[in-house]
Structures are given as C-alpha cells and as structure tokens.
Amino acid sequence: MRKRGLFGLLASLLLTAAIAVSAAAPDFAVGPQYDTAHVYVTPENFDKFVASLIATFGGTTTKQGVFTVTPTPSSTMSQLVLTPVGTVSVFGFKTPVPYPFGAERTGYLVTDLDAAVGAARADGADIRVSSFNDPVGRDAVIQWPGGVDMQLYWHTTAPSYPPLKTVPENRVYVSPERTAQFVKSFLEFSHGQLVLLCYKRLTQQKGQEVSC
Question: Which pLDDT tens digit goes with each residue over 30-44?
Fold first, then answer.
C-alpha cells in the first residue's frame, strides 16, 4: 500500500478490549464488558445523559452515588451504564476535576494492578498517576506514546456484568510522528493484532473514488 497522509492523520486503530501483558507474563485481562468508556458531563446533565444512553442502546445502570475517585480531594457523581454494546463510566464532578483526570478515554479492569502498571511501563507507557485507592479498589492512569491516556482498575470484590453482544471500537488519534511507537507499545502490552484500514475518499473535482 502506498504511503499517503490520510486526512493528515495516521489511521484509525481498532484497539482490542482485552488486556494481556506480554507473551511470557500472566494474562491480566478480565473481559470487554469490564472495559469502560469514560464520559464527563456536568451534574445538571448527568441524569439526562444516562437516560439517553439507555434509551438508545438499552441495558441497565448501577446505583448512582457521589464519591471521591481521585487521589486528591474531589467529589463526583458516578454511575456505570451497562449496555449490550459497551460499558460507560459517567462522571459529573461537583468540584474542579483534578489534573490529569478527564483526559483518559478508557478504563480497563485488570486482575493485578501493580503487575499491569509495571508491564505498561516496560512496554513504553508513562505513569501519569501512580496507583491509589478508590471506594471499590485501586486505580492508576497511564499514557502511551502519542498522548493516549488510559486508566487501569482493580476491584476489591470482583464485579459480574453480562457479556456484550458486540465489542465496541475505541478510536484514538495520535500524530504521524508517534504512530509507530504507539502501535508497537500498545500491541506489546495488549497482545493485540494490527489491522490496517484503507479508506476511500471522494475527489471534489471529478467525483470519483480513489484508493488510499
């Protein structure tokens, strides 16, 4: 495939939801229904947003509460939305959001937080927030080359969520200069596979499709 700047961007990567660590290390994955998209909304829009998700995709929610989910003092409304096509963690902070929280797109549940953080570091990730306690377990925030933030979780009591009907796609965008490093680091950490997506675009002048 010829090299071409596709809309000034690298490509869209399908990120596998299950996390493993390395070929020689234990598998710390849990399952795609325990991997959550993180969404931050204003408190006044919290209930409306959750209701719209359920109306659109179906599913259930956990009990809403107000918690401190960061290592520094803060207060946020929090609720899980469990849909058949993916799980969403909804946060409605009543206090300012402590930096760098809010930049992470995804949270992954793992069976061993310390080992998973160590493996991520070995595979090229920076540790943005070291492991800390939360109301249901422990967390850490990591950043992959290119500035992709993810949160890792471990729960004191293992949760039990229904399997997904489909595994959602998680899109991330990084600069062309960091593409190769991001792909290498994340695939080593996740035991994933690289799928190259070739898009077609319309030429404005001729109205014809051209291959990438």
Answer: 999 999 999 999 999
